[in-house]
Amino acid sequence: MVWTRATCILSFILFFAHIEAVSIKHHLKGNVHDAEFEEQKDISEINLDPPLAAGLDLFQGDILLRNSRNGLRDPNARWKFPIPYILADNLELNAKGAILYAFEMFRLRSCVDFKPYEGESSYIIFQQFEGCWSEVGDQHVGQNLSIGQRCDHKAIIQHEILHALGFYHEQSRTDRDDYVEIWWDEVIPGHQHNFNTYEDSFITDLNTPYDYESLMHYAPFSFNKNESVPTITTKIPEFNSIIGQRLDFSPIDLERLNRMYNCTTTHTLLDHCAFEKANICGMIQGTRDDADWDHEDSTRPGQVDHTLVGQCTGAGYFMFFNTSSGLAEEAALLESRILYPKRKQQCLQFFYKMTGSPSDRLAIWVRRDDGTGKVRKLVKMQTFQASCSQTWKIAHVTLREEKKFRYLFQGVKGDPQNSNGGIYLDDITLTETPCPTGVWTVHNFSQVLQDTVKGSTILSPRFYNSEGYGFGLTLYPHGRINSLSSGYLGLSFHLCSGENDAILEWPVENRQVIMTILDQEPDARNRMSSSMVFTTSKSHTASAINGSVIWDRPTIVGTYDKDCKCYRSIDWGWSTFISHTMLKRRSFLKNDDLIMFVDFEDITYLNQTEVTPRNTRLTPQGLVLQGQEQQDPEEGSAQASLETIPDSQGNGQPGRQKRSAESTGPMEDHNWPPYFRDPCDPNPCQNEGLCVNVKGMASCRCVSDHAFFYTGERCQAMQVHGSVLGLIIGGTAGVLFLTFTIISMRSKKLSQ
């Protein structure tokens, strides 16, 4: 048995030498002098770091327990949407933007929604405490969700919000041991309880299979005492590199979320079609055009769909307009069903391929309400021209529809006599979200990997955002030359000089960069794209430019690139953006194309977002502090309740008692959770000093009078103000001088 265990762990370590779990990097406060973020640790590692480890002992590593409400089992602990929220001003600016970005992921994939707080009794306040943690379920009071330093990553925020929505960790299921092995001897002493399983009466899987890909699963090295030895391995070895992924929701995560909250639709997904069914998603052929689009599959040589890339017999359909016959300028229209928007902006994304004449065209139209209730008013939005490349391409068209509408695809024949193909359409997605600012596709990426080495770079074209700033991406197919990790792709952001630089602000700060490598799964709800987020700051400097801010004007701090005829600044990003293994496992390299998005937006407006809760008390109690004795419920003004949570063996967890407290006022210090016992009761300060609770310790604010003031830890020493003391000394000296003068004058008179 010992030999089997040792062999398994050794095999796992060797396996991880080649295939590592996805890691991310991030910056800390203060100046950062390298153009690469420091390595981002997983949630359990962040929450074990000193000084956090000395003060927090969270349930399962990142759950703050207050009472026994379980959102999975107790309907009363499930939220009503939209969920009110507050973004506390102690959050870093990047964290605020990342939280709003995470909200959009929920809106796209589920019926979960959020709204700014307006006085509701139940709400979530996002704050920067130490570490990343949340409570489970709706506590029916204001409750905290901590996004501390190094926690402001999209997937970590999604993980903590899923806790708030009522979910526990995947490996807590009662059937966990059928799928993974826990190496108890490798767990940090005192943290074994984090790997307990629980009965169905406490945690339910909502009748879904065990999910190795779950965003709620522990990573292999969670709570490990030896950094090179895992604490958890999978019984199917290929999933050892998958558990603990921090890309995005897994499809089963979303299935559970939507079952739990009875979601039948999402908020921002308006339409999706992969043309796999004969009804072509309710789309209709035009009646006043010259021809029709054909619904075809991938059985013909050279005709391969985008959805399944021709890999499935009897599946893999697309729409095709033949441009090799008939007359020039003949057209075919394909119209969507009538759609009803909720927002004022939409993004139409689709894949197309043009294999006919170079003069063939694909035009995108919108048919709007004409004011009488009929959807008939046509407006052309954008036209795509055929190019030399005859591969599948991704396209985005921004729509701004506020009333019911249809979108249309118009194929136009350019030169039928010189055409041997036509126009293909597949994988249409319409969302009520902004389109990405920059879209970059690298074709034949497998060949790129073969032709490049560690440190090799590929530069994107220059993009412009709405403010007029030029920027681009730097791709490292094998990571940076100085990276300690191998088997990873690196991706970084840089500024480019442009035509608007003379009127723009420099250095440019408070702009959030969102870089995404697209998972080309046809259904946007099931995509697990890799996204990284950071916000430009004057603290981002580089020694290569003598410590200057890298977000200054590129003509000052950048180098000239003859290909784009512009200056490019030092790039800033991640050397381990995503592993090659993950790229190949999902649909990141469909048709061997790597597709990247980039956005660069001003989030200065998020600097001040906090509002004061009305007539409700924020009670984030329930935090168990290591080394702190539990208070007798009868002592003090707060009534505390203690309860032990049973595991699947019926045993209570030692040292894992959860607390709830009443009659506790709102927390004024947003930098640390409050303790239960008030250190200012009774008042330890002397001479009428005022006691203030600072991070659980009494701090005396001493009385100061016009003439005297008190000092000392307990205001025990009286002092005289310097000005008063000077006045006394000066007055005394003056009196002595005057007395001496009078005596001298009288002595002279007597002598005369």
Automatic annotation (TrEMBL):
Enzyme nomenclature, EC number: 3.4.24.-
Residues of the Peptidase M12A domain: 70-264
Molecular-function annotations in GO: metalloendopeptidase activity; zinc ion binding
Free-text remark on how the cofactor is bound: Binds 1 zinc ion per subunit.
One Pfam family here: MAM
InterPro entries linked: ConA-like_dom_sf, EGF, MAM_dom, MATH/TRAF_dom, Meprin, MetalloPept_cat_dom_sf, Peptidase_M12A, Peptidase_Metallo
Signal peptide: 1-21
UniProt biased composition (Polar residues): 638-651
GO annotation, cellular component aspect: extracellular region; plasma membrane
Binding residue positions for Zn(2+): 62, 159, 163, 169
Keyword terms, alphabetized: Cell membrane, Disulfide bond, EGF-like domain, Glycoprotein, Hydrolase, Inflammatory response, Membrane, Metal-binding, Metalloprotease, Phosphoprotein, Protease, Secreted, Signal, Transmembrane, Transmembrane helix, Zinc, Zymogen
Catalytic residue positions: 160
Start and end residues of each MATH domain: 435-600
SUPFAM superfamilies the UniProt entry points to: Concanavalin A-like lectins/glucanases, EGF/Laminin, Metalloproteases ('zincins'), catalytic domain, TRAF domain-like
Main location: membrane
Domain MAM: 271-437
Cofactor(s) for this UniProt protein: Zn(2+)
Subcellular location: Cell membrane; Secreted
Residues covered by the EGF-like domain: 676-716
Gene Ontology biological process: epidermal growth factor receptor signaling pathway; inflammatory response; proteolysis
Transmembrane segments: 724-743
Disulfide bond in keyword set: yes
Assembly notes: Homotetramer consisting of disulfide-linked beta subunits, or heterotetramer of two alpha and two beta subunits formed by non-covalent association of two disulfide-linked heterodimers. Interacts with MBL2 through its carbohydrate moiety. This interaction may inhibit its catalytic activity. Interacts with TSPAN8.
PANTHER family from the UniProt entry: DISCOIDIN, CUB, EGF, LAMININ , AND ZINC METALLOPROTEASE DOMAIN CONTAINING, MEPRIN A SUBUNIT ALPHA
Protein name: Meprin A subunit
Lineage: Eukaryota, Metazoa, Chordata, Craniata, Vertebrata
